[in-house]
Amino acid sequence: MTKHEEIDLGLPYKHILARLEDEGYESYLVGGCIRDYLLGREVYDIDITTRARPDDIRRIFSDKKVIGFGQKYGTIKVIDKSIGYEITTFRKDGSYKDKRHPDGVNYSDSIYEDLQRRDFTINAMAYRKGEIIDPFGGKYDLGKKILRTVGDPYERIGEDMLRSMRSVRFATTLGFYIEDDLKSAIRDRASEIESISADRIRDELSKILLADKPSRGIRILYELGLLSYILPEVKAMVGFDQHSSFHHMDLFDHSLSVLDKLPSDLALRLAGLFHDTGKVSTMFIDERGEGRFFGHPLDSEKIIDNRLRKLHYPKKIIEEVKILSLRHMDSANTYTKKSVRKHLRMMGEETFRKLLDLQMADTLSTSKPNIENIDRARQLIDEVKASNIPIKRSKLAINGNDLKEIGYKEGKIIGESLSYIENLVEDEVIANDKEEIIKFLTKKALFLDR
Ligand code: ATP
Ligand code: MG
Hints:
Blueprint: H1 14-22, E1 27-30, H2 32-38, E2 46-50, H3 54-60, E3 65-67, E4 75-80, E5 83-89, E6 91-92, E7 106-107, H4 111-116, E8 126-128, E9 131-133, H5 138-144, E10 146-147, H6 153-159, H7 162-174, E11 177-178, H8 180-189, H9 198-209, H10 214-223, H11 227-230, H12 232-235, H13 251-260, H14 266-274, H15 279-282, E12 284-285, E13 291-292, H16 296-310, H17 315-326, H18 337-364, H19 372-386, H20 400-405, H21 412-426, H22 434-444
Parallel strand pairs: 2-5, 10-11
Antiparallel strand pairs: 1-2, 1-8, 3-4, 4-5, 6-7, 8-9, 12-13
Bound molecules: adenosine-5'-triphosphate and magnesium ion.
The site of magnesium ion has 4 residues, from loops.
């Protein structure tokens, strides 16, 4: 970057900076947006740091929607044309007591001090009037793909253990390397991760899982000793020999192989990571020396429920991860139109397609992949949807009132008859056509006199 060069972040920012500057407050683009711009990555949100104090920021943007989040720490989010601008007053760090929050906010008048309190060199660059301010060699580290703290790693990690999760997240999403001293600092202090709130850990974990190659992040968490605190049941799979002729990898490597083969969807990636955690407690070796894991999806389900609740994942995500994991062995049976319909009814098309993705990634991560059945299920979904055979009871061409009209009495018999017809329609014995069904019932005089 040469001096006096305008940068194009792909998002507008000039009018926001101009307002602050026009009022006499020195203001910079800072942090993630500069890092991502220099890496040629897409910029999603804009962080601004300014000499203006929170009250000034509010006044200057009083005509805009303003969220005072983290206002205590000097951050205000201004929303303009649905883009969020996080505006933070220059500050320097005071002492830390609780491993996370500085004991008080010390505002500063110096951009240098503000950059100095930021976590990594690659996040400690700012931009103003055509110039990049880079006092800690952030650009150099970007080129070398190195994550390095601003200042002594042992101290900086000690001040705020969330930085350890952030370093793993950036190493994973950007494909960077964590510098050796920073690694040692995290390893030495790994147990202190328990001081960080579940919500913050969850947010970083999710970003790791959604990366192009999530296994990299999970391996780094293991190497740094963080995995046993954050995901002990995943750690328990490390080195676990399945004693199986289907598996050439240990359980941890198998799960990570599955993880990397999945589309970037949170529920799916969580299911990939956890689907076999229940194997650890269920294994027994049969008379031929093969490992057996009867009922392991049920154990995985319990583990998922417990762990994801502790990490405060939303209920909807937890339920989907559970059903995906619980059903991951279904492809052991050959899919038929009937079983495909059953799955569609049970979990809906979107989740069923995710289940097939999980089953595909799972079989491709064994020594004897069997993909035909899963390919066939995908075809069958299209066929089942194209046919007139209902997936839901409400789509059956006949209902309880129709039955009453042809003489059925009120009561249990109505429901039973509808189930009976539903089965026949599913088995393609009769078509889902009102006239045809009525003709069929009348001819057989089924249940009529009961
Ligand atoms: P992204 O927005 O892609 O998650 P980011 O680097 O912008 O990445 P934010 O959480 O938006 O991350 O934080 C903005 C900036 O604030 C960072 O670039 C960094 O300079 C600083 N920062 C964030 N969290 C910390 C922390 N825990 N310790 C020190 N500085 C931090
Ligand atoms: Mg940001």
